[in-house]
Amino acid sequence: MTKNIDFTVDYSKLRIMDEYNTDDLKYPLILSIPHCGTVFPKEFLKAATPDVKTLRKNEDLFVYELLEPAIKQQNIPTICLNIGRAFIDVNRAKLEIDPNMFYDYPKDELGLNQQRSRYGLGIIHKITADSQPIYSGLISYKEAEARIKNVYDVYHARLKKLIDATIKKFGFCLVLDCHSMPSKICSIISESPRIDICLGNLFEQSCPNKISFFVENEFAKREYYVAKNRPYSGAFITFNYCEPRKQSYTLQLEINRNIYADEDKLEKSNNFQKVSYDLSKVITNLANFLLDF
Fold it and tell me: What's the confidence (pLDDT) of residue 116?
């Protein structure tokens, strides 16, 4: 018999997100960093089966730290989620939820399940990156709703507000949604033996091509191998905030973890500082490019 797992998180003790350089917007660019959070509610950790290190393998490793020079030295507007991705994934649509995870999922709300929720990586992750179950039983849907209200909605409300403020000041906005990708995902793309950077622009729909080309060329000048829309063309944030009629543009940035870290040990490699410097230069140059766009 499957057991039910009940716990209640005290969100008042959690710092949900951090933001930088958002009081006085210097550029028509916002960095969104939704997956590098390392904070897990203590109530969740008691209920979860894997240890913290295993849970952290779902995150985008060190992405904030990679971009920190651009954020702190060049005043690039940024929002960064602090909460771990294995707890809630803000780069998913609310429909991407698996009803089979919950013992009290409302029958009248059974709807469409997106592909990622079937794989166990929807808005509420069911498994770790190495396919271990996160829970030993069923959890409460009411608890999942609390996560969405207190974390997911908070992040998206702030991102939307920043986009609107940027458009009001500059006439347009580009959201660069920043991620890292596991090196193994690149190895399965046979025609591309090496991918350092993937740029996802929804197959040239999420932003003007000259923005994508500019970023691609900036990386290429620094001898990084760049792919566009493979293996990732853009996820929920890239799609949801892409509104060209409102001059709201998006671009998803994926960095191969192998070029700056040991993925298994969750440790920085000797190449970390170089990659951080190069990334920050690319983003700084992009920000200045957008000022004259």
Answer: 64
